[in-house]
Amino acid sequence: MPDAQAARKRVPVREGFFDSLDQPLENVHLVGSRCRSCRYVFFGRRTGCENCGSEALEDITLSRRGVIWSYTVQRYHPPGDYKGPEPFQPFAVAAVELPEEVRVLAPLTGIDVDRVKVGMNVELVVEPLYQDANGNEVIAYKFRPVEGRRTR
Fold first, then answer.
1. What angle do CA 145, 125, 135 make, to 5 degrees?
2. Where are the beta strands (DSSP E) in the chain?
3. Which pLDDT belongs to residue 152?
4. Spans of all domains in the chain
5. Which of 53, 14, 50, 51 is nearest to 30 (CA)?
6. What residues have CB less than 8 Å from 38, skipping those under 6 apart?
7. What is the pLDDT of residues 96-128, one digit of tens each?
8. What backbone phi and psi angles, to 5 degrees, belong to 17?
9. Is residue 145 classed as helix, strand or coil in its secondary structure?
């Protein structure tokens, strides 16, 4: 009989967000789709362009660094099946603009909510969010502040 520990695996919080979870998490990238017709870029894999309607899209690897374009602070415990840390602590959610001219919404980590600023440089953090009913690690993404200029 197979060992339950060996059967555990990494699963994405949502399909089509990551390049591959079969590598160290610090090497994982978010992915997007670029329309071959109008060149519009979307976060996550898509089958059709919401900008021009074309079905000619290509997968692209998104940069791990970006800049906070806007943000808000989640000060109340989210309703429903909240999977974050308990007891609840307020956290910032940012729209991070990547060099590919796409904005990604994500929680911020490693910074007090009162210190977040528009224009702040951030980098991708990929980590387990929780363990599902089968014992798999559900992998999610966040961004954390970094010094310096954004790079790929």
1. 150
2. 10-12, 31-35, 41-43, 57-61, 65-74, 91-98, 102-107, 121-131, 137-145
3. 46
4. 4-145
5. 14
6. 49, 51, 52, 54
7. 999 999 999 999 999 999 999 999 999 999 999
8. -100, -30
9. strand
